[in-house]
């Protein structure tokens, strides 16, 4: 099952000014984003899909948003991506930015075929108007159940560099931050160190695709190890290894296949 969620309405932000003194225009707050934030992808057909930003990668002076490959795949989306926005409608990437993007979707790894391999990774250039938090992970759940949303609300965690998938992860408690279910945690059930997948028992639902899976480091920071790809809602989920793809971010040409 691939995670994909149609969205039909985006929030509108209204700014109210008081009339106590002559009005002075306040500078507009810069658009920002971070690992665990929701992203809305719009296609050339007008469809919209909801995914989660895995992380923000910096290459020189340019920032890139990282997410799951199927979140930018035209076949999965039903059209070519032409913009990426925040949930409230602020621009993260326009059509020009998306020309500096890429994705890969290959492999059939699943709970039934854990050795099949999987690549499900994408990146896109963030618009120059965006001032991203490239070292933070946080999330606000949007399940529609207020008690759950309050329970899984997740404050900012400082993140370090992504780390590779290793056999030492098996049995470790790891967490993910998603646009729909917020911060949820659970044990790693198995890994494929060759093709860099992680299989974990962590709640997630549609819209969480791209979520960062991370471990807690001895340095006091969290380190992304995977990108949420697919699985069964609320139970068993599959994460593609993030670090194995990071070297391709910002480079022209197709992403390397593992």
From TrEMBL:
Swiss-Prot/TrEMBL keywords: Signal
GO molecular function annotations of the record: serine-type endopeptidase activity
Keyword Kinase in annotation: no
Signal peptide feature range: 1-25
Matching Gene3D superfamilies: Trypsin-like serine proteases
Entry keyword annotation includes Signal: yes
InterPro entries from the UniProt entry: Peptidase_S1_PA (IPR009003), Peptidase_S1_PA_chymotrypsin (IPR043504), TRYPSIN_HIS (IPR018114)
Entry's Gene Ontology BP terms: proteolysis
Lineage of the species this protein comes from: Bacteria, Bacillati, Actinomycetota, Actinomycetes, Mycobacteriales
Name of the protein in question: Peptidase S1 domain-containing protein
């Amino acid at each position: 099952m691939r995670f994909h969620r149609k969205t039909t309405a985006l929030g509108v932000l209204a700014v109210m000014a008081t009339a106590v003194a002559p009005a002075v225009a306040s500078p507009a707050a810069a658009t920002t984003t971070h690992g665990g934030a929701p992203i809305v992808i719009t296609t050339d057909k007008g469809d919209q899909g909801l995914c989660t930003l895995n992380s923000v990668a910096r290459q020189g002076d340019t920032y890139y948003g990282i997410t799951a490959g199927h979140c930018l795949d035209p076949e999965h989306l039903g059209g070519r991506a032409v913009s990426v926005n925040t949930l409230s409608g602020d621009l993260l990437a326009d059509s020009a930015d998306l020309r500096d993007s890429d994705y890969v979707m290959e492999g059939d790894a699943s709970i039934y075929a854990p050795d099949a391999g999987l690549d499900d990774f994408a990146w896109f250039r963030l618009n120059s108007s965006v001032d991203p938090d490239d070292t933070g992970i946080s999330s606000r759940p949007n399940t529609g159940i207020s008690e759950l949303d309050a329970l899984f609300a997740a404050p900012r965690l400082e993140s370090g560099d992504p780390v590779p998938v290793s056999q030492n992860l098996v049995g470790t408690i790891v967490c993910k931050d998603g646009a729909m279910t917020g911060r949820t945690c659970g044990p790693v059930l198995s890994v494929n160190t060759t093709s860099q997948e992680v299989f974990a028992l962590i709640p997630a639902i549609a819209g969480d695709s791209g979520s960062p899976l991370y471990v807690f480091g001895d340095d006091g920071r969290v380190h992304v190890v995977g990108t949420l790809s697919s699985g069964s809602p609320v139970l068993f989920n599959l994460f593609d290894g993030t670090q194995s793809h990071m070297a391709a971010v910002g480079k022209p040409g197709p992403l390397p296949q593992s």
